[in-house]
Amino acid sequence: MNLSVFVSLITLLVMRSDGKPSKDDSIITNEDKAKEYLKEVNGRMEVEYRKQSEAWWGYSTDMNNRTLEAQTKAMEAFDEFQKKQAIETKRYNWTNFDEYNRRQFDRLALIGTSALSEKDSKTFTRVTTEMETIYSSAKICVADKCDLELDPDLEKLMAESKDYDKLLEAWVKWRDASGKLMRKNYIKYYHLGNKAAKLNKVLNREFKTLDDIWLYSWETDDIREQTAKQLDQMLPFYQKIHAFVRMRLEKAFPDKMPKDRTIPAHLLGNMWAQQWGNIMNTVPGVDPFPSLAPIDVTNEMKAQKYTAKRMFELSEQFFVDLGFEKMTQKFWEKSVIEKHKDNRSMVCHASAWDFYTQDDFRIKQCTDVDMEDLIIIHHEMGHIEYFMQYRAQPAVYRDGANPGFHEAIGDLIALSVATPKHLNKIGLLRMDDSIDMKKINIKFQLKMALDKLAFLPFGFIVDKWRWDVFSGNVSKDHLNRHWWQLRGQYQGVSPPVTRSEDDFDPGAKYHIPTSVEYIRYFAAHILQFQFHKALCGFGQKGVPLHECDIDGDKEAGNKLKYVCHQNT
Question: Which family does the similarity line name (predicted)?
Answer without folding.
Answer: Belongs to the peptidase M2 family.
